[in-house]
Amino acid sequence: PSMRFMAPLDQFASTTPSDKGVTFKFAQLQPIKAPRAGRIVYNGELASYGKVLMIDHGDDIRTVMLGRFNSRLQ
What integer pLDDT is reported at residue 66 of this predicted model? Predict the structure, then answer.
């Protein structure tokens, strides 16, 4: 099935697409939003990646966010 995803940031300086996903660069602190409804399956540190947040959207589709960010689940 076709799924639509939103950008996890409202204001970003640039994006860099690749075969593995999209990298968003931003200039200021702002809230990160889930790109689509789903269930958080991991939120924490992971090896050399640093902070990782994984969202399972079903149908074997997941969002993985990596980087230096603070997460507060609501």
Answer: 82
